[in-house]
Each structure stands twice: as structure tokens, then as C-alpha cells.
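REQUEST FORM: STRUCTURE PREDICTION
Request ID: SP-0412
Submitted by: Lab K.M.
Chain count: 1
Length (residues): 139
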Amino acid sequence: MSIKAYLSADHRACDALFAEIEADFAKAKARFADMARAYERHFEIEERIFFPEFEAKTRMECGPTQTMRAEHAQMRALLEQMKNALASNDKKRFAAISETFLFLVQQHNGKEEAVLYAMGDRLFGAAADEMVERMKQTV
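STATUS: Completed
RESULT:
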């Protein structure tokens, strides 16, 4: 399986969990932790496996992976804000933060899928399969 196929499918799985809770505050309270955990796992896979190997191969430490890490930090902060809005039962705030999160995650995923993952598949060739296997083992 290619890096792009695996990580793009993981994007879709995270996004499906988000879509489930975005418009339903009661469901958000019940399922938020599962959704946040899925996104965190995805960020960790990229930050601990894909990005370091991509940087080592390309020798680009200040390039696209730095931007993706910064966006991960923004998304983590938004997830924390959504969690706090849920805890304080603030539906309006939750909805507003969710809208911001959705916009950021769509832009972020598009950049990763169109550029970074495709580059990774080309760079790693047959070694991409082994990398994907390590990604699958990340819990």
C-alpha cells in the first residue's frame, strides 16, 4: 500500500468521525474523545514516522513538514478548545470552533495528499510499504 493511499484513508476515517459530531452536540459529547484520539494518532504517525524520514531523505527540515507540524499544533489547540466548549456546554462556541477546525483540516489534508504524500511515495519507492506497516502498528 502506498503512503498516499494509507494516510489519505486515515484522513477520511478521522474526518468521518468529525462529521458525525460536528452538527450534533449530544453526539459530540459522547464521541468527542474518540474523534480527538483518531486525529492525534494520525498526527503522531506523521510526526514520528513519515516526517522524520521524509526530512532525512530530502534534507528539508524547514520545508513542508515544518508547515504541517505547525498546522497540527493549530488543530490540537482547536481540539482542546472544542473539548472545553463541550465541557462548559457551550453549543455556540463549539459550533464556531468546529467550523474553524473543518476549514483548517480540509486545507491541511489537501496539501498533504496532493503534494507531501505523493512526494513520499516517489522518494521511498518500495520502502514505502515497510513504512506503511510501521504506521499501521502505531496506536
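NOTES: The chain has a mean pLDDT of 95.
Reviewed by: T.R.
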